From TrEMBL:
Source taxon at top rank: Bacteria
Annotated Gene Ontology cellular component terms: plasma membrane
One Pfam family cited in the UniProt record for this chain: BPD_transp_1
Name of the protein this chain belongs to: Carbohydrate ABC transporter permease
Alphabetical keyword list: Cell membrane, Membrane, Transmembrane, Transmembrane helix, Transport
Localization: Cell membrane
Membrane topology: Multi-pass membrane protein
GO terms for biological process, alphabetical: transmembrane transport
Organism listed in the record: Mordavella massiliensis
Family named by the database record: Belongs to the binding-protein-dependent transport system permease family.
Record-linked SUPFAM superfamilies: MetI-like
Major place of residence: membrane
């Protein structure tokens, strides 16, 4: 092979290498474009879906700032033409809404703390302790989840009535200080821990209560967060039981108080919606803050290891 042929072959190899690099850059650019288009499409679809799902809430907020004269017209008013906060002022003046909110916070907070304590203790017993009939007792606890609350509400009412607990904070809190769902959630989380962890703690002289406080609770923050969010929202939205056992404004909760804003005149509609918007703010805020803990806690016990 002559020197001229060798130089031509070297030049051909250099050109091929450059073409390969250029082709790789073009492929990366096309892949990046496809990825951006896919991400943008998913983002737009999520925004549209979020708007559709939140449309009732957004419209309720619009009605809350809308004078009653604008709501009951032949025109489709999606947004208030003359925004006003008078509906919120009327909601606070017509009923003691602040007292109702305080009652709901006390009830929901105590129920949440109580369920975390009782459910974690029961789940510890079902997970780490060995006693006769443990499996059968756990089945009975889980079977209570199939009993609807309406089936026991009358017997519970007669019980608390005979005890003289009606129209008090204890009657709102005590019947809901534990739940089968909470016991199941904590037990599934505790089952992911090896039994050797408990045995080692016992050998070191650690008691059961100290083991729960010092070891289990720090390791189960996600389950506690999920339980707290789930329980607080359920207790905050409770309606039937507070309606049945309370009879004075000093003990009523927000869900009962909002129904008191409704009357026969059309003006009460915007005022009631304003009250609804105010009372859903705590539950939505807690859900937004604790949604990651809720999701992580719900799925944390699904997989071992």
């Amino acid at each position: 092979m002559s020197q001229t042929d060798t130089m031509a072959a070297g030049s051909q190899r250099i050109i091929s290498r450059e073409e390969l690099l250029q082709l790789k850059k073009e492929m990366n650019a096309r892949a990046l474009t496809r990825r951006r288009v896919r991400t943008g499409t998913l983002l737009v679809a999520n925004i549209i879906m979020a708007v559709v799902i939140l449309l009732p809430l957004l419209y309720a907020i619009s009605i809350a700032f809308m004078p009653s004269g604008e709501l009951f017209t032949t025109d489709l008013n999606l947004f208030p033409k003359n925004p006003t906060i008078q509906n919120f002022v009327d909601a606070f003046t017509n009923v003691p809404l602040l007292k109702f909110i305080l009652n709901s916070f006390i009830m929901a907070g105590c129920i949440t703390i109580g369920q975390i304590i009782t459910c974690s203790l029961a789940a510890f017993a079902f997970s780490f302790l060995e006693f006769k009939g443990k499996g059968l007792l756990f089945m009975v606890v889980m079977a209570t989840m199939m009993v609807p609350g309406e089936a026991t509400i009358i017997s519970n009412y007669l019980t608390v009535g005979n005890l003289g607990m009606l129209d008090t904070y204890p009657v709102l809190i005590i019947p809901y200080l534990t739940s089968a769902m909470g016991i199941f959630l904590f037990r599934q989380f505790y089952m992911t821990f090896p039994i050797s962890l408990y045995e080692s703690a016992k050998l070191d002289g650690c008691g059961n209560l100290r083991f729960i406080v010092k070891i289990l609770i720090p390791l189960t923050k996600s389950a506690i967060g999920a339980m707290a969010v789930y329980t607080f929202i359920n207790a905050w939205n409770m309606y039937m039981w507070p309606l049945l056992v309370t009879g004075s404004n000093d003990m009523r909760t927000v869900q009962i108080g909002i129904s008191m804003l409704n009357s026969v005149d059309s003006q009460s509609i915007t005022m009631m919606i304003a009250g609804v918007v105010m009372i859903i703010i705590p539950s939505i805020s807690i859900f937004i803050v604790g949604q990651k803990q809720l999701i992580r806690g719900m799925f944390s016990g699904a997989v071992k290891g």
